[in-house]
Structure formats: C-alpha cells, structure tokens
Design goal:
By secondary structure, the protein is mostly helical. The chain is 70% helix and 0% strand. It has a single domain, classed as DhaL domain (Serine Threonine Protein Phosphatase 5, Tetratricopeptide repeat, Alpha Horseshoe), CATH 1.25.40.340. The chain has nine helices and no strands.
C-alpha cells in the first residue's frame, strides 16, 4: 500500500459522509446539536480539496497528517479535533515511508485510537466514536495475527465497527453533548460511532481495491 491507497480511502470516506450527511444529522438531532453530518461532510470535503492542492507526491504518513490538520481547522464540535488527532497520530506512526504493509496499518490505527481516547477521555461503553473504533482496531489486529489477508482483516474491522455502532443504541451517553440528556440518550444510535463506521467502510474498500 502507498499514498494512492490513503488517497483512495479519504476520497471514499468523503463520498460516503456526503451521501449519509442528512442521516448523520438526523441522528445528531436526537441527542446532539444536529450538525454532525454537516460538519463531517464539510471537513472531509476540505480534506480532499487540500490534498488536490498538493504540488507533488507525498508519503502516506504525510497525507494523513495533512488531512488531520485540515479537519482540525475546518470542523466544529468534537469531531474535528478527534478525527484530526486520529489521522495525525496515524500519519506519524507511518512516518515518511513511501509504502506500508499490514503491520504498519495496524500500528497506525492503534495510534489513531490512542489519540482519540487521550483527547476525548472516552472509553468503550460511553456512547461515542470509541465504541466503533476500538472493536474495529482490535478485530483488524486479531485477524492479521491469525493469518488473514489484509483485505479480510479490514473487512472484519469494518464489521466490528458496525457492530459497535449498533451497540451504542441502548447505552446512556456519559460524554459530550449527549450526556446532558441523561437517560433520554438511551435508544438512539450515536452519530460519531456511525460516521466512524462509514470511515472504516471506506478503508476496507480502499484496501480491497489495492489487494
């Protein structure tokens, strides 16, 4: 995998977030500020525009760092800083190498999750994006350790992320804007976990194309 893989991932994530923008906003209207879909669409649209401005090839790590910085500067609420931190940490984990393999991708996603947990002070079970990202990262590494291909491992990560996303419905939020609702947050799917699952799906698609 190389910079083209990362570019394809980000482009597919942007397309998916745009397609599901209204749905994400609908989810957020129930327990948040009703702006998650708009924010994520605007942020990833800005990411693609920024990458297209590049005047030359960049390493996969540098692409992710640039994408993360763009999200921090263009997305309001919690999602910009959280995903911005995730992508920048992942980019730094990849370093300046022009290519990366399954082990490096797993390490990059580990670093992304660590950054999100550190910044958001959230753990699994608190009805946040961590409920989708953490099981996805675990599933990827477990499948790779078991000898699966990267495409299969990335697909398993996406499926684990979707399962984690759905598992947020019965949870009571204890972080972010949704936590203000107390028990009224129960019964609603977390928008951050939902957009995270979309981004994981884009990664699985990009990796599958590469394979």
């Amino acid at each position: 995998m190389n910079a083209d893989t990362v570019q394809r991932w980000l482009e597919q994530a942007a397309a998916s977030l745009r397609e599901q923008r209204d749905y994400l906003t609908q989810l957020d209207a129930a327990i948040g500020d009703a702006d998650h879909g708009t924010n994520m669409d605007r942020g990833f649209t800005a990411v693609i525009a920024k990458l297209e401005e590049s005047d030359g090839p960049a390493s996969p790590g540098r692409l992710l760092i640039t994408a993360g910085g763009t999200l921090v500067s263009t997305v309001g609420g919690a999602s910009g800083p959280l995903w911005g931190t995730a992508l920048r940490r992942a980019g730094r984990a990849l370093g300046d190498a022009e290519e990366f393999g399954s082990g490096e991708l797993a390490a990059a996603l580990d670093a992304a999750l660590e950054g999100v947990v550190e910044l958001g002070a959230a753990q699994e079970g608190e009805k946040t994006m961590v409920d989708a990202l953490a099981p996805a990262v675990r599933a990827l590494r477990e499948r790779l350790d078991g000898g699966a291909s990267l495409a299969d491992a990335a697909r398993a990560a996406f499926e684990a992320g979707e399962e984690g996303m759905r598992a947020t419905v019965p949870l009571q939020a204890s972080k972010g804007r949704a936590s203000y609702l107390g028990e009224r947050s129960i019964g609603h799917q977390d928008p951050g976990a939902t957009s995270t699952a979309l981004i994981l799906g884009a990664l699985a698609s990009a990796v599958s194309t590469e394979s």
